[in-house]
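Re: that chain you flagged

S.,

Sorry for the slow reply, it's been a week of failed gels. I finally had a moment to sit down with the sequence you sent. For the record, here it is as I used it:
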Amino acid sequence: MGNIIRRGWKDFNVESRAHRYIDRHIEKPVPPPRHPTTERLLKKAQQDTPELMQKNEPLHDRLKQVMVDSTEVKGKPLDVEIDKDIPRSSSRSLPQMRSFVGSPDLFPDEVPVGRISVPRAMELLAKHKQDKKKWTSERLSQDFKLNLDDTRDILENFQAFKIIPQNPNEPNPRLPIYDKRELTAD
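Prediction finished late last night. Pasting the C-alpha cells below so you have them in one place:
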C-alpha cells in the first residue's frame, strides 16, 4: 500500500518540479560529485602549486574576446577541398574486367602439418576404401602426417559431399545438377 502512495507522490507535479530545478541550475550548473581519491589529489595539488589554481585575468579577458564566425550556407559545403586528386563524377565507370581470370583458389597449396585439405581427405578415404588391410589408419596417419586419433575420426565420420534431394525421383529445377536426368535412390 505504501508503494502506491509513494509512486503517486513521486509522479505528482513532475513537470513543474523539473522546470524549477532547471531554472535554479541554469545560471551555474552544479558539478557532479567527485570521487574521494580525486578530491584528495586536487587538494594536494592546490597546496603544492597554488599559482596554477589562480585565475589569470588578462588571459581570461582575451579569451572572452575570441569569436568564431562560420560562413557556411546550409546545403553548400565549405570551400575546403579534401582529396583534390580524385575526380568527382556522378557516373563512375564500372570495372572493365568482370570475370575471374584463372581458376579460383578453392583449396590451399600448403597445409600445415597435422591438418588436411579436402582433396587430400578424399584421397585418404579412397585409399582406405580400396584396400583396408594395406591402408590402415596407422599407415595413413604416417603418410598424411596426421594424428592417429584424427585419422581414425576422419575414416569414421568424414564423407564425400552429397546433395540429398527431398524426393529423389523428382528433380529440383533450382539445382543445376538435376538437368532432366533420371534420378534413382541409392
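What I noticed first: The chain has a mean pLDDT of 77.

Talk soon,
D.
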